[in-house]
Amino acid sequence: MVLHCPWTMMAASSAGVCTACTIFRLSGRYWFSRTLSYNNNFSIRNVQTTTLHCQSQPQTKRKTDPRKWVGVVGLEIHAQIHSNAKLFSESGVHFAAPPNSLVSYFDASLPGTLPVLNRRCVEAAVMTSLALNCTINKKSLFDRKHYFYADLPAGYQITQQRLPIAVAGSLTYNLLVRQKWNQVVTKTIRIKQIQLEQDSGKSLHDDTRSQTLIDLNRAGVGLMEVVMEPDMCCGEEAAAAVRELQLILQALGTCQGNMAEGQLRVDANVSVHQPGEPLGVRTEVKNINSARFLARAIDYEIQRQTDVLESGGWILNETRSFDYKSGRTTPMRDKEGLQDYRFMPEPNLPPLIVYDNKTVPAHADPQQVVNIDQIRERLPELPNVRRSRLVEQYGILPEHSFTLVNEDGLMEYFVSVARETKAEPRKIIGWIIKDLLGLLKQHSLNVSQSPISPMSMAELLNLLEAGTVSSSAAKQVFQELWKGAGSSASQIVQKLDLGLLQDRSTLEQICRTVIDSHQEEVRAIRGGNKKVLNKLIGLVQRELKGRADPVQVKTILEEKTL
Amino acid sequence: VSLALREGKVSPTELCQRCLHFIRKTKFLNAYVTVTEEIALKQAEQAEKRFLKGYIPPFNATVVQKLLDQGAVLMGKTNLDEFAMGSGSTDTIFGPVRNPWGYSRQYQERCAQNPEDTKDSSDWLITGGSSGGSAASVASLTCFASLGSDTGGSTRNPAAYCGVVGLKPTYGLLSRHGLIPLVNSMDVPGILTRSVHDAATVLGVLGGHDPKDSTTVPEPFKPFSLPDEIDVRNVCVGIPREYHAPGLTKEILAHWTKAAELFEKAGARVVEVSLPHTQHSIVCYHVLCTAEVASNMARFDGLEYGHRSTIDSSTEVMYASTRHEGFNDVVRGRILSGNYFLLKQNYDRYFVKAQKVRRLIANDFMKVFSSGVDVLLTPTTLSDAARYSEFTKEDNRTRSAQEDIFTQCANMAGLPAVTLPIALSERNLPISLQFIGQGFREKNLLTVAKWYEQQVKFPLIEFQDVADHVSEFPKTTKSASAF
Known about the structure:
The structure holds two protein chains of two kinds.
Chain A: H1 23-27, H2 31-35, H3 45-56, H4 59-64, E1 70-80, H5 119-131, E2 135-136, E3 139-140, E4 143-146, E5 156-159, E6 166-176, E7 184-198, E8 202-206, E9 211-215, E10 222-228, H6 235-252, E11 264-273, E12 283-288, H7 291-310, E13 319-323, E14 328-331, E15 344-345, E16 352-353, H8 372-377, H9 383-394, H10 398-406, H11 410-420, H12 425-442, H13 454-465, H14 471-483, H15 489-495, H16 504-517, H17 519-526, H18 532-543, H19 550-561
Parallel strand pairs in A: 12-13
Antiparallel strand pairs in A: 1-10, 1-11, 2-6, 3-16, 4-5, 4-15, 6-7, 7-10, 8-9, 11-12, 13-14
Chain B: H1 2-6, H2 12-25, E1 32-35, H3 62-69, E2 76-78, H4 105-113, H5 132-139, E3 145-150, H6 156-162, E4 165-168, E5 188-193, H7 196-206, E6 236-240, H8 250-265, E7 269-273, H9 281-296, H10 315-326, H11 329-342, H12 344-370, E8 375-379, H13 388-391, H14 396-403, H15 408-413, E9 417-424, E10 430-436, H16 442-456, E11 481-482
Parallel strand pairs in B: 6-7, 6-8
Antiparallel strand pairs in B: 1-2, 2-11, 3-5, 4-5, 4-9, 8-10, 9-10
Helix pairs in contact in B: 5-6, 7-16, 9-11, 9-12
Protein name (chain B): Glutamyl-tRNA(Gln) amidotransferase subunit A, mitochondrial
GO cellular component, one term (chain B): glutamyl-tRNA(Gln) amidotransferase complex
Domain Amidase (chain B): 51-105, 126-446
């Protein structure tokens, strides 16, 4: 058997070393022992990458000058089209329907059945492509991608390999630096293409009875595959980009975007390299079902690849699966080796033609054609526009508009509260983002599950605004509301006697008592240490369960100490 | 017959019973796979094969439904080559189909004069294929019309050998919904009848857009009837030079020449034309055909329907054994070569190149038609029907290449073509010629064919007592449809 170097495709010498590529000697390893079964997977591009590394960075230098590896991340996202019927058949689309209850003859690949394209799916793809600034191909083609799998009844998937419906778009997203709410960085990813394709069915493996059960409800559901260029560098960026795409799809209504239900599925292509050098060998990470896991999987994979390269090893071009329990990625055994999908034009579907106002045929039935210009007119407000509108309309900070839009239902919550109260939007933001959202996250709840309704929140803020309660008492009322005993904010104020103390003489009396029992602090204040005054204010408030107006307490204490 | 029906001389029930009687008498021909004496039986046209043995499609093909909607009486499902892959109707799970002409008085008498031809009484004449059962059903007078499929000539080839009219309509005129695909980009439902007039009538019922088949043309289709008085003086008939193929019998060549002279005498313009890329057609046909076959057959994995192997130690093993058991050598061979042509490294060299040549072949026809030619006149087959023992001396692939030589070009270009019997050969077997027309101009094509039909007065088949042969029919009944 002649061994071939995976990088140069040249026959190796008897020592297992490729004569055209000295890289293996430098790494101190014989390549064939590691890559024998994978040697078909390497593309020509990797020849340059690895050779350059070796020539410019001898091993000795590496030790003294630890190099900086950066991650390169590209995403392939499958978004299930939100439609009544499947891409090529009239069967319905519902998550968690009884197994095999949504299967037409075509979906089950009965011989003699033919695909009939669902116009709604084309419109969804065009609308999504417009929202992602793509160039829409007026003519696109369908292809068959062949592979045998139990949940792929026809033995091929109908997809758009040669000429997809849209190309060359972009996705702009915001990144909150280091998870602090104070700095928003705007980034843009290039979108290579968007293609229409069929979803597969689902296989359920019953290991105890060693059988596989197949549910074809999902088979043939329309998917939009969004292929992104490798323009991201870490898990956080990827997660933020996916979140933005999710918001856009939900705003458009073209995809429900629920990752847990598989409506949005993300595969990540990850590699590492050194700045200024060609891209490294990449791995594809699959089986990621939330944005949080996406970030973790990518960061794990970047670290793993960096460690492998640092220790002189090599990255294999392979598909890896993310295990959310261990937080690791592992090679997927059934995806080993090179698949030849034997692409072929789909002969049962004519080219897909979409029109604009200029090209639409005069006699065409509007129900039968897809018009790009008409769809553009129907585009709803997209998340970034929504954020700008919030900033403009309510005078809030951009980072706050970011949080409001990115948290499901939070913007609606905010708008409802703002409508019902005269409180400043900025004040409302503080309560909603710091207090409410904080508690919700702490209890892993959605905004829709909040025990405090927008109406209760508005009532509380109105009490605060009217001076009926102090801000510290308001926090107590908030805590009571969270417990959800069913009382309104004003009922709680009454019940717990949290109303603002209006009687100045009572207040003065309590201040006097505090001063008398804290002479040391009073001396400090008189000596010029004004900060100690706050301690006294706190003591007074504690005495009064926060019912006093802090400004008034401060005035009285100042008068009495100075 | 239609005249007799209209005038009430014969009732539809009587007619149906007469046909059923004929079917029983001609059972040995193996033409029918299922005889559906009760017409309400729901059956789609279906290419029977061992993979789908016992599989009853739960829906009707659009073409079948259209006929039923018009009140057609379904007589049964006819026999054909497995998955329509063949040109003899010899590679079929239900046993080979026998040509009714082998049992005609005309042929038997000629054989008696020439003892060499009858040395083996167990031998018989093939029908051609793949829709041999459909052709035999019409030729044996058991029905008036039959459906076949035509991918490379599967309707016209057996029609020619069995002495009936075989029409391959323009691609996109008839729905393929319900037709088990062989080569999706070439398949069309074919129509087999006793006369050109009947073919036009059936076409009128079947033609038109089907929302279930996106490759049917959206333009409305108007059924037409053919005139009785036909004048061919304004017709230009093209004789393609390249159809003088090696292996063409002198007899057929002579009839072809005679036909051209007949047109000339009647005042038609007859011109020799050239279709230079025709010589590459059969090779390209095989690349495209096997590629689509490989793809179309991928669905037969035994999971959803059809045969499933009992060897199931793993899903992959189950696939492999199911497909090994379920397909015959011909089908397996085509799947293997098709997958080879579709491999990434071969795709451009074979598949794309074949598609390019296909375009050149279609352009050849376009050029000829735009030069003023109305129809092309060509042979349908190289010779008359062969005996089974003779035919099976060559393998399926070789036979397909020989048998489809004159017919598959029309499929490559998507053009309508009709074959009709014109005379009996020296062996007293049907000889047929083919007319190829312009896309969607079936009316012109069939009008010219009808004129020629009127001139040649092809004789009716005469049966000796068919009961003589009933003892020898194999197993049982049961696929294309006969009406």
